Amino acid sequence: GGIALWDLVDNFHTFVHVSGVVEHDDLVTSVGVVSGGKSAVSCGADRCVKVWDLENMHSTNTYRAHHDVVECISCHPTEPALFLSCSADGRVFLWDTRKSRPVTVLDTSPLLHSPKQVVWQPGTHNFAVGGECGQVVVKDTRKAVGATLSFSCHSRAVTKLSFCQENPRLLASASEDCTAVVMSVDKDAGRQIFKDTSHTDFVSSLSWQGNDNLFTCGWDSKVKNHCVSKSEQTCEDCVTVQMETDCIDKETVKKKIANISLVCNGNGAGLEST
Q1: Is 151 exposed, middle or buried (0-12, 13-18, 19+ CB in 10 A)?
Q2: Repeats (WD): which ranges (predicted)?
């Protein structure tokens, strides 16, 4: 039930523990740093959402709006008062801490199952939510505004979603089906442009470097570096994208798969090409 603050020193080679505190009554599932870096938001299996003052390392607010495990927190890229949360109770909340009643329930349809991950799309009002059965939905936080995109890109639960900061139309997702996928998300259309199947166990997280490099890590004890622009996929790997109109568009882009993976096995690192 604790969170910790770490500093990276020696040119980002060494982690130094700055401070830590335990206030959640169960496992902490997600932590997000608020725009500006002076506060953070955490959530956990105790069904609580906590806002933290990182300078003094204590919680300033505790919210109990969800009815089950709170799975994920996503802080707005530029607005310190806004963040998103999703829970095993099936709901996604938009929070505005400036209000006396800070919670707004967001419509996540056509998401068919419980949400596992949620993330803001930088520079827009859009958010993406990933479900326990592998579906990813992108839609506007404002009601009845913009197109809704639905991607059937995984066969098991989504474990991480991340928009590329330098190219916000690129959305990466990781899953318990041992795959990582990158989707191109435009205003009225979307398509899968990359898929990696080289992990041999759950892909637990991912992170962008620049607008082309994607790092993934998994339960197979491997960290892999993928060059998205050099990767190409065959038509049988393409994803089905469903719009608000329920029209299904099957992308058939013929390309070959190429990625460079950095494998860390605890006994040193080796460069692996596949």
Answers
A1: buried
A2: 21-62, 63-105
